[in-house]
Amino acid sequence: MTVHFIGAGPGAVDLLTIRGRDLIASSPVCLYAGSLVPPEMLEYCPPGAQKIDTALLTLAEIVEEMVRAHSHGLDVARLASGDPSVFSAMAEQMRRLDAAGVPYDVCPGVPAYAAAAAALRRELTVPTVAQTVTLTRIAARATPMPQGESLGALGTAGGTLVLHLAVHRIDELVKELVPNYGPDCPAAVVAHASREHEIVLRGRLDDIAGAVHEAGIQRTAVVIVGPALAAEHFPDSHLYSDTRCRS
C-alpha cells in the first residue's frame, strides 16, 4: 500500500499528467481539496472509490485517513493543486507518515506559475533581462516567513518574482516591491490559470492593484512582477547561436 502525492496541476483536467491520471485510477481512496481540484478530475477514480474532500479537515484528520487506508491495504491518491513541491503542505504530511510507517511517493504536476506564464505568453527568464525566478508568498494570516525572506529583501535580487497566496494583499505587496522594482515595473495577475474562467490582468506595479480590485480577484491567483514580462529588445540566447560550438 502506498500514498501517492499527486500534482493535480493548475486546474485544467487535461493538464494532469498521464502518470497522475493512472495513479488516481488505481487508488481506491482519493483525498483532494474540493476548493482547488475540479470535480471532473475525480472521474478518473475507480468505481466505488472513497473520495474525501480535505478542505475542512485538519492535518491530523487527513493523516488519519491515510493511515486508516494503509491498515486496510488500500492505495491513496493524495491530490495537491499545482505541483506538490511548492506550497502544498506535503512535507508535514510526509513527516507524520514516516512516523506511522506508511510508505509514499510523489508524482509531479504542472505548477500554477507555469500555467500563469503560459496564459501571459511570456518566458520568465529572458537573456540579459532576467535569469532568476523567485517563488514566494507573504505571511499575512499564515505561517511566518523565515528571516531574510521578506518581499523587501527578496526584491533586491531583481529577476522575476512570482507570488502565490498573496493576491488578497495586493496593496501591501505593491508597497513593498515598488522601492526595488519601481512603480513602472511590469506586473501581471492570472487568476484560475488554465480554467475556463481564467482572468488575465497586465499592467505595472503602480496600477495592477486597482485592476485586481476592479476584477474582484481575491484568491486562486498568481502575481508576477519583473521586466521579463515586457521585454522586447534583448539578445538571442547563446543556446541556439550559430557561433556556439556544437562538436
From TrEMBL:
Source domain of life is Bacteria
**Residue span(s) of domain Tetrapyrrole methylase:** 2-208
CDD domains this protein is in?
Answer: Precorrin-4_C11-MT (cd11641)
Which UniProt keyword terms apply here?
Answer: Cobalamin biosynthesis, Methyltransferase, S-adenosyl-L-methionine, Transferase
Q: Give the pathway.
A: Cofactor biosynthesis; adenosylcobalamin biosynthesis
Q: What is its EC number?
A: 2.1.1.133
Query: One Pfam annotation, family name?
Result: TP_methylase
Which GO molecular function entries does the Swiss-Prot or TrEMBL record give? precorrin-4 C11-methyltransferase activity
Q: Give the top-level enzyme category.
A: transferase
Which GO terms fall under biological process for this protein? methylation
**Keyword S-adenosyl-L-methionine belongs to the record:** yes
Family designation: Belongs to the precorrin methyltransferase family.
| Family annotation (NCBIfam families) | cobM_cbiF
Under which name does UniProt file this protein? Precorrin-4 C(11)-methyltransferase
Encoding gene, per UniProt annotation: cobM
